[in-house]
Amino acid sequence: MAELPLPVPSEDNQPFWDSLRAGELRIQRCARCGTLRHPPRPMCARCHAFEVEWAPMSGRGTVYSYIVTHQPIHPALVDRVPFATVLVELEEGPRITSNLVDVPPAEVAIGLGVQVVFEWASDEITLPLFRRAGAAPPGA
Amino acid sequence: MLRNAVAIAGVGETDYSANSGRSELVLALQAIDTALADAGVEPDAVDGLMRWSVDTSAEGEIAANLGMRNLAWFGEISQAGNVGAALVTAAAAAIHAGLANVVVVYRGVNGRSGRRYGRGDVTGRGGRGGGAFTEPFGVLTPQHGLAMQTRRRMHELGTTERQIGMVAVTERAHANRNPRATFYERALTIDDYLGSRYVVEPFRLFACCLETDGGGALVLTSTERARASGRPVAMIRAAAMSGFAGEREYIDTSAVALAPRLWAQAGVAPSDVDVVQIYDHFAPFVIFALEDYGFVERGDGGPFVESGGAMWDGGALPVNTSGGHLSEAYLQGMNQLIEGVRQARGESTAQVAGAQLSFVDTGVGTGAVILERG
User: Fold this and answer.
1) Interface probe with B: pick from A20, A67, A89, most Cβ of B within 10 Å
2) pLDDT at A43
3) How far apart are CA B259 and CA B265, in angstroms?
4) Which of A69, B143, B149, B268 could be cross-linked to A83 through a Cys-Cys bond (beta carbons 3.0 to 4.6 Å apart)?
5) Is the pTM of this model over 0.90?
6) How many degrees, rounded to 5, is the angle at CA B194 between CA B189 and CA B197?
7) Which of B196, B201, B248 to mutate to test binding with chain A, by most A CBs within 10 Å of its CB?
8) Could you give the ipTM of this predicted complex?
């Protein structure tokens, strides 16, 4: 079965994917001025420092926006439409594109509280997905 | 100052179809020949060529086919389809600086029978670069990312599906006057729109641009030289581009960054403009552009379009008078530049009577020009 493209890590964002593989959501933070940024970039746009930290996140956030794909333009979506994609605003501020594991597309709404879960995709890649906040984690 | 020193002296396009049966190079060359004839410029006077980075016909190929002996100015602009007016801006700057005399901006694309933008054939990154953070979750083409921005902007400003639908209805009415348009003979009502399927919520089918095979070209030269043809010319009163605005709010378009520079350069206000073309890859962005360029206040664009304000027939400010990307053709801003020139010359199939200032955006802020009849 066809799959959506998996992330191809680069030397500028490898630690993000490493943290997910270790079961944590960490977001890049400037080691000089403390500004969080996502997706990862080499340089802090505020102070131009290259030194970075990878700050652990609470994993809590809210749905900032969302779409529901109906036309399966990619073979991986043929059996999965309607397919919701969300933009989650993390409690700490950064926004991250993802999917919800336990919310039907018709129930996705701006403002919905969500919590990160980790989805194994390959030996190299674990994806940060989200579930409804307060719901029991899948399989629990 | 650039103001009105350079003009678009000629325009040309091929037929628009779903299967051109010829190469993208041939489409570009046919459009260029038509535009040169329209401008009354001899091919050997051309000394500049500019193209979209995504165009597959390199300037050397074009120059060889045209028989050019001296290519003094060439270049391309990246991003994707949204750089037509940015190219016009760069070409005009070169002419104004005396670095070239006649610059042709061209586009030839088999966007329906060849690589399709709607399937990510051109813009997909296979999970690399920024795509690592979007594509694994189903953001596979520009339509997905723009739908995401649209949903949030609807939430914040109250834009409705019916208002978005009226963009499509307005443009279709204009296409029904334009024999070149793909949807020339097909009407569209607001009920048709609201009954059409979703492609990606909140975009319904008729909120999405066409995919088109076709070619288009513009010939730029000094206004003085352009006037030698003896015909009305479209003078470039102002031209600007905006590549990136890092500090902007999520719902802002690039027009927020571009608009102040454009209006200051032009020395006119949005209320002085007679007719508008806007890059309508997706219908709601017509509303967002009207707001972010300052034609209406934020949040007022939807009601403006819903009440018929953008209609050629009776509207206060006709928008996308050829049918635009939704109903004429998706030539990635080229067809809107051509229509903007026709309005300034008094030659549109939905001509705004007495039009003096003709505004063209080709990327919701990536680039815009204000053309003046001259």
Assistant:
1) A67
2) 96
3) 10
4) A69
5) yes
6) 115
7) B201
8) 0.95
